[in-house]
Every structure is written in structure tokens, then in C-alpha cells.
């Protein structure tokens, strides 16, 4: 996702903070609009862009979690690995998890 993908969400968050209601639209020029209550104060384009930047930064900070989630073996397979590791004194599960964690580090510098 790109920063632009967070513009509408940012407008909704700011509008809700101001009015306790979560609906507002975004005009083509990026300004918040409310077609129902035209007398309400709308978030400015600068406020929306700043809020969108915060949302985007927060999403990027945890991107590694999303990347890891699709790489981990499914839960049933992991449970099977744990069972066999306990039975055979092996580290198959820990090795599989470590491989994914190394590929997608928390600093989002993956893949490695």
C-alpha cells in the first residue's frame, strides 16, 4: 500500500475526532467534504495528509509481521513439528520459525 491509500482513512479518523461521527468523503483535490452537514468544520488537507502519513508509518513499522505470517507453516503443520520435536528431541519447529524470522527481520530489511 502507498501513502495515498491512507488518505480516506485519515479523513474519517479526523472527522470522527471533531464530530463524533465517522463519515465524510474526500473530494478529488484531497479535501474532506460532508454533503449532509455543510456547516461542520472539516479537517484540512494538511491535517489529512499528516494523519495519513502517521497511519502509513505505523503500517510500514509492522510490515514484517504481515510478511512473516504468509511464510510460516500452517498451524497444523507447526503442531505436528512440535509433537515430533518433543518425541524425537529435535528442533524442526524452532528451525522453521527461525528461518522465517531471519528472512523477515523486525527492521523490515527483508527478505534476506
Quick summary:
With 112 residues, the protein is mainly alpha-helical. 58% of the residues lie in helices and 4% in strands.
Q: CA-to-CA gap between the ends?
A: 21 Å
Helical region count?
5
SSE-based structural type: mainly alpha
Overall geometry? elongated
Number of domains: 2
The side-by-side strand order for the widest beta sheet comes to 1-2
- What level of helicity do the residues show? 55-70%
Provide keyphrases for this structure:
single chain, 112 residues, mainly alpha, two-stranded antiparallel sheet, 5 helices, 4% strand
Describe the structure.
This protein has 112 residues and is mainly alpha-helical. The protein folds into 2 domains: 3-60, no CATH class; 64-103, no CATH class. Helices cover 58% and strands 4% of the residues. The chain contains 5 helices and 2 strands, in the order H-E-E-H-H-H-H. The chain has helices spanning 7-19, 45-61, 63-71, 75-88, 92-103, and strands at 25-26, 32-33. Strands 1-2 form a two-stranded antiparallel ribbon. A hairpin with a 5-residue loop joins strand 1 and strand 2 (32-33). It is elongated, with a radius of gyration of 22 Å.
Produce the secondary structure layout.
Elements: H1 7-19, E1 25-26, E2 32-33, H2 45-61, H3 63-71, H4 75-88, H5 92-103
Helix pairs in contact: 1-2
Amino acid at each position: 500500500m502507498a501513502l495515498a491509500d491512507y488518505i480516506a482513512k485519515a479523513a474519517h479518523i479526523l472527522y470522527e475526532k471533531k464530530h463524533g461521527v465517522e463519515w465524510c468523503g474526500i473530494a478529488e483535490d484531497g479535501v474532506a467534504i460532508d454533503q449532509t452537514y455543510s456547516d461542520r468544520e472539516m479537517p484540512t488537507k494538511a491535517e489529512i495528509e499528516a494523519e495519513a502519513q502517521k497511519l502509513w508509518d505505523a503500517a510500514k513499522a509492522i510490515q514484517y509481521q504481515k510478511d512473516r505470517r504468509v511464510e510460516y507453516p500452517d498451524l497444523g503443520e507447526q503442531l505436528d513439528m512440535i509433537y515430533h520435536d518433543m518425541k524425537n528431541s529435535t528442533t524442526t519447529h524452532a528451525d522453521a520459525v527461525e528461518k522465517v524470522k531471519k528472512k523477515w527481520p523486525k527492521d523490515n530489511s527483508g527478505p534476506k
